[in-house]
Amino acid sequence: MSTQHLSDRINNLSVSQTLAMAAKARELTALGKDIISLSLGEPDFNTPDFIKEAAKKAIDENWSNYPPVDGYLELKQAIVTKFQRDNGLNYQPANIVVSTGAKQSLYNIAQAMINEGDEVILPAPYWVSYSEIIKMAGGIPVVVPTSVASDFKITPYQLQQAITPKTKMMWFSSPCNPSGSVYNREELTALADVLKNREDIFVVSDEIYEHINFSGSFCSIGSIPGMFERTITVNGVAKAFAMTGWRIGYIGAPEFIAKACTKLQGQVTSGANSIAQRATIAALEAAPSEIGYMVEAFHKRRDLVLHLVNDIKGLEVNVPEGAFYVFPDVSYYFGKTLNGVLINNADDLAMYLLEYANVATVTGDAFGNPNCIRLSYATSETILIEAFKRIKEALKEQ
Ligand code: PMP
Ligand code: GLU
């Protein structure tokens, strides 16, 4: 038996580099190596008690039947209220679909909207799974590169240049995984202006890091005049509420798209986990200030990590305004030999750091930027200090 028996679809699919690196770190740890994993993006906090209590109550109240495919009405109502409260977006319950993580929300959208050969604009760096999810639907990712110099944000001119008659959508995250960049209202308005004369282009706005934002303000592109009807707003509870394992994501979308996603989900997974849905009602009804302690901790760690990164020769970073990653440009090391190892690219550097610093990171290649590596700072300050000490040591040139 071998891969020849598998579908072309699966043979052509890349493994998720974030999950692969996390698995590798776990494997090495199990072998007794002292690995610090800065690979996987997940909060190191526990799910807040008030959410856990809501889940326990849901179990006791026997919320154990199949839930509606698109989510419980009370949850959809809580999402509608959340979108109005935080984003100025006026969705109705018919616009909402709850899924098994924002990852499934994204997959649904791709399958529901993309035809073979449709182009999808991806400002790079983009979140690792976008390109594979788009390709699985037959779409063609059109990658628009950025760099530290532009705070990893695309300009209206770049967007204009990327548009062709085949452009179907643009997908982006703000705050961005992996760069931490946050587009402000002015910048989003300028991008929306470019899209004005192409009303057939839809935008996927992935706002899963919305609350982990140190910039002081947040803007959903769907709230820019002219954008609501063609924006699919993706969000979830994994990051802000430290609920990665609960697997709840959701969208707000034009009703015909919501219906299409529900149709697909109804044939594939049915409604998302009933207990997690009930718990999510409690999470979304809470004031965002309830999770302020986590955001504050991430902010402090961001400042610490910037200080630590800037202390290492050859790493060039932007100031990430949100999420919990730094995405240094490491191209200074390309072509250099460290401890006898020739570093040709970001993949080599990530593997080198794993072996010589025992620190797991993710190559920027997976995010569409081959000059960078991603490090998650969703871990304690003590661990971060130790990790960067090791990295600094390993990157010393002889
Ligand atoms: N979008 C972005 C930008 C992410 O970083 C993640 C990471 N998990 C997801 C979507 C998927 O979220 P979920 O865990 O809810 O599937
Ligand atoms: N979103 C997280 C990350 O980028 C989790 C991993 C994943 O879902 O792929 O690390």
UniProtKB/TrEMBL annotation:
UniProt-listed InterPro entries: Aminotransferase_I/II_large, AspAT/PAT-like, NHTrfase_class1_PyrdxlP-BS, PyrdxlP-dep_Trfase, PyrdxlP-dep_Trfase_major, PyrdxlP-dep_Trfase_small
Presence of keyword Ribosomal protein: no
Keyword set, alphabetical order: Aminotransferase, Pyridoxal phosphate, Transferase
SUPFAM superfamilies recorded: PLP-dependent transferases
One GO biological process term: amino acid metabolic process
Transmembrane segments: none
EC number in record: 2.6.1.-
Aminotransferase class I/classII large domain segment(s): 33-382
One example GO MF annotation: pyridoxal phosphate binding
Cofactor(s) listed: pyridoxal 5'-phosphate
Family from the record: Belongs to the class-I pyridoxal-phosphate-dependent aminotransferase family.
Name assigned to this protein: Aminotransferase
